[in-house]
Each structure stands twice: as C-alpha cells, then as structure tokens.
Amino acid sequence: MTREEALQLMEKHIKTKNLRKHCLAVEAVMRALARHFGEDEEKWGLAGLLHDIDYEMTKDEPERHSLVGAEMLTELGLPEDVVYAVKAHNGHHGLPRTDLMSRALYATDPLTGLIVAAALIRPEKKLAVIDVPFLMNRYHEKSFARGASRETIAACSDLGLSLEDFMHIGLEAMKEIAGDLGL
After folding, report:
1. For labelling, which of 87, 104, 106, 118 has a CA lying 20 to 30 Å from the CA of 171?
2. What CATH number is associated with residue 146?
3. How does pLDDT run across 27-76, given as a tens digit for each residue?
4. Which 3 state secondary structure label does DSSP give 148?
C-alpha cells in the first residue's frame, strides 16, 4: 500500500479533523523513529498513519479498538508486522510488543498528544516555540494532558531511548509537519 492509498483509507474511515491530525502526527514520529533506527520508513509510517483506522467505529468499545483495525488491514494485505503493531498499540489487549515497530507505536501514540497539548497552552499555539525542557516540565505535571499516559510514553525505554531523546525525535518530526497539524 502506498502512502497516498493509506492517507485516502484513513480519511475514508476517520472524519474527525483532530483525529486525522493525530494520525498524521503519529505517522511523522514513526517515520522519524524508523530513520533513527535504520528501519523501513514507509512501513513504520503506514503503522502510524493507520493505527487508529477503526477508532470512530470502536470508540465506545475500547476492548475492540485496534482489533477491528487490524482485521481491516489484514484484509487489505498490509504486512503482518504493521498489522501487529496496530493491534498491540492498544494496551487494553495486553499484547506483548515483541518488535521495535510495535514498541515505537505504543509509546508514540500518547507522546503526540502531550506535544500537541504543550503547544496549545502557549499563546502562540505553535510547535516552533516548544522545546524538550518545556515538554519535560509538562510531562511531570500530573494534571497536564491527563489523557497522555506517562507510563506509556516512558515505554520509550523499551526502544533504548531516554525520555528526552524520545521527546526530541517526536517534537522535531512534528515540527516538520506543523502546517498539516495547524500548529
């Protein structure tokens, strides 16, 4: 599947503007992580772009989220490791994240939310004014961006990355697509 086909598929199944932006952010960070680790950037990008493909169908049934999406992606012939990463990104299932891609997607999903929330509290509402120390301060505020699980973000250690390095990679990747994110 090409990136363009994946984008069309995501837009077909996800109508919410902010959820579309979230998928684009996760894609950007996954691509940056693939470059960092010398992995297949296209594959990792597909996992990021399509990870929430079923969210609008399953939002009221978290136990089904990512399972339905994984089925859809399997039927479309996506690679098994992409399908597994999508399935395993939902911690609700308790699936082991056995490879680098699934570990990366799991930790990246909430990181993008933390980064967006940090940009939105600034008067400029732009990623350009955010840096890692600012993110680290927000990360340690328990009441800030409660939906961005700190435990899940901290799973970046399973990638061999420090929290600061992970945030740096994620923030820089999102800055590259700031226009698409409206930030």
Report:
1. 87
2. 1.10.3210
3. 999 999 999 999 999 999 999 999 999 999 999 999 999 999 999 999 99
4. coil
